[in-house]
Amino acid sequence: MTKVADTLKRVVVGRPMSSGELQHTLLPKSIALPVFASDALSSMAYATQEVLLVLAIAGATALPFVFPIAGAVAVLLAIVIVSYRQIVRAYPGGGGAYVVAYENLGMYPGLTVAASLLIDYVLTVAVSITAGTDAIVSALPGLAEHKVVVTIGLIALVSLANLRGSKESGRLFAVPTYGFVLCMYALIVTGFIRCIGSCPQAESSGLPLEPEHALTAFLLLKAFAAGTTALTGVEAIAEGVPVFRFPQSKNAAATLGILGAISISLFLGVSWLADHTNVIYTEESHLTVMAQIGDAVFGGGVMFYVLQVLTALILVLAANTAYTGFPVLASILARDRIMPRQFVNRGDRLVYSNGIVILSVFASLLVYAFDANLNRLIQLYLLGVFLSFTLAQAGTVVRWRRTREPGWQKSATINAFGAVVTGIVMVVVLLTKFLEGAWIVVSALPVIIFMMRAIHGHYSEVRRELAHPERVPADRRPGNQHMVMLVQRVDAASARAVGYARSVRPASIVAITFDKVNAPTWARLAPEIPLQVLEQEGSRTNSIKTFLRRRREDLSSDDFLTFVVSEILRSRSTFEIVKGWRIQRTKASLRREVGVQVLDVPIVEDEIDPAVDQAREPARNYVSVLISGVNNASLQAMEFAETLRPTSLRGVHFGLDPEEAERIGDEWLDARVPHPLEIENSPFRDIGLSLINYIRSEFQPDGVNRVATVVIPEFIVRKRRHEVLHNQTALVVIKRRLLFEPGVVVVSVPFYL
Amino acid sequence: MARPPDELRAESLRVWAERLAGTIRLAEVEARRRAKVAGVIQNVRIDPREGRSFIEATIVDGSGSELVVRLTGRMSLAGWQLGEGLVVEGTVADRDGVLMMLNPEWDLVAGPEHG
Prior knowledge:
Number of domains of chain A: 2
Shape of chain B: globular
Number of domains of chain B: 1
Oligomer: heterodimer
Strand content of chain A: 5-15%
Structural class of chain A: alpha/beta
Number of strands of chain A: 10
Distance between the termini of chain B: 26 Å
Strand order of the largest sheet of chain A: 3-2-1-4-5-10-9-6-7-8
Helix content of chain A: 55-70%
Strand order of the largest sheet of chain B: 1-2-3-5-4
CATH topology of the largest domain in chain A: Amino acid/polyamine transporter I
Strand content of chain B: 35-45%
Number of helices of chain B: 1
Structural class of chain B: mainly beta
Number of helices of chain A: 26
CATH superfamily of the largest domain in chain A: Amino acid/polyamine transporter I
CATH superfamily of chain B: Nucleic acid-binding proteins
Distance between the termini of chain A: 55 Å
Radius of gyration of chain B: 14 Å
Largest sheet of chain B: 5 strands, mixed, barrel
CATH class of chain B: Mainly Beta
């Protein structure tokens, strides 16, 4: 590429950084503020509006209450900020509400917080993007009819950006966030100046507004609850302490203070302007409160559009924080074994994508179900926020009482007070919003908690079974190897399979076929291996299963029964696998057959050399067992591998997580497995690719003289629905890729839980 | 156009290794001489077999060469993790074209990807 293009890219994208560098870049306060505050500040775009909407029910005379209510919310915001400054001090590791509640209050409070945080992330996306659409629609009223489409389109856009792997970059956040804050201050200051004398009036100020309801204390509480929207997003800083520059806790606390000051002043300023410009906002309004105030204060013009654009941008950024927060939380939850383990490794692209897709799908469903109506969506939002505020603060109080650090009484008092206040607000939110939508969250929470509990139960059981000290490798002698070979045709592939089987020297071997015409050619190819012609009863797969079960009954439980399949792949495309569906289906259904290993000898057609494919025994058979943990499943696979009479035998672990890799290494040493283990790097987090590169460079298999066997231990869970919890799809992908690798034989060794 | 990731990684390794005082680059290492070198752990091998147990790591420093560091008789990895840095000092041996240090003095240091 040209120098100009290179320079352009540097300017747009910045200097190239390695991924490690990016992760460990610590943020100064000036960048950390926009990164974490976009969520909290974006709620300024709709908090005042939500208060006005409730007050409008009681008619025009109720509207001036907006400012005192904003004052009360500001006090609440101040309390929460002060309290969270203590949490930041207590958890310099960046606890987040879930960790705090789980550590100090126990499993169920932890699960409650986890569930409400997950719901919150979905709602953050739905609410922020819907509010962003509102800002766009206020500037371009023609789009009003297509709000749902625009909103879901925006969600798709944000998730696409995240699927491509865009990392949140501080400067990217800084411009719109600071721009939004400056624009808001410009709005408020201009508004104050123009209010000297008489205030400019909003477009809607003159509209008739009939009271539908008396101004009751309950209605005021409801308006207050609506205003507490301003608090959403405050917790983000407490979760992100580790990315701050040193001294981390101090900087994070300072940033929280700045965020609080900005939020409070913006909220009060906007609410004051709303009062004085006499904005009226009802369900029927097409323009947002911010748009109306902006129009009145700036008198339309450029600044009005700038305000709308920046508002939409910061709302999209707020949604984006959910896209970065969700995978982090999911990975913490998966590590604690309350979410599927596919979420553990954040860097694994497939996994990351899963989280993003799930988040987008749920957010889009909500937007669709609620017709992209911000005022209805927001009713669901606050309960989870205050639930996690309350439990996080209560958890921190428990922690202070336990650690008794110097000055703990003061901190504990602040947190306890905060917990009580947010607890009360939570009850208010629940009471005032239950019928409007909070009931959905109230009923979803126990369902999610129950599912997490069930997932945790399953993983704990699997762990117990895998760790059962049934296999002490050093003291065990593996059983014998018995083989059953499926002959579809007598061809180059079956010749290779015969050669392979000969090198293994199994205790017994029998070939089966459904076609009598194979018999004479088979007798020439492998006279020492008896060929049995099976009568087809039902499907071929069923006949094979029946045969294998009978064979299995005759063997001792230590013995291995291996089903050998050979196939010719006509081309190197994955489409080939679709064409060979029959054998694939047989292999897939045998996966669940107790006590049977499936060994696959594939050959790609253009590799066939009639001169050499004469069922010759390969001189070398290098066996590698894919290790993902030291447990009964992998040790059983090692024992199986021993029966293959390998030239060399080793375990191979591809370390996505260096700490886990070290632990596996130590466990391997502890277990005294009588074979070496190699811990290999997987730089692109693609185990299939790393494995293929490893096999090529270590063994140079050619399929004739040198064969590489890859043994893959697999868990087979009793209930099929539990398969979701074990990332077996990754194994399927790896196996599929290995099929096309010359000279590679793949064996699945199932372990039944 | 940005350079390929391998080249970028090699460069960040070189910058990292230069900073460790007293070490020479792996490309300058010669067999049968003492040397003090630094490198990042690329892969780890463990062999717990009775009588010959060892742990072994291949380290690289972006200079194009690699070195195998082997400790015999150990039954723990003691912090040897992929991506961590090792500073080793000992005599280099040539084993079938592979440079190797047997039981050198060694120290773990933060790898280039840890700030």
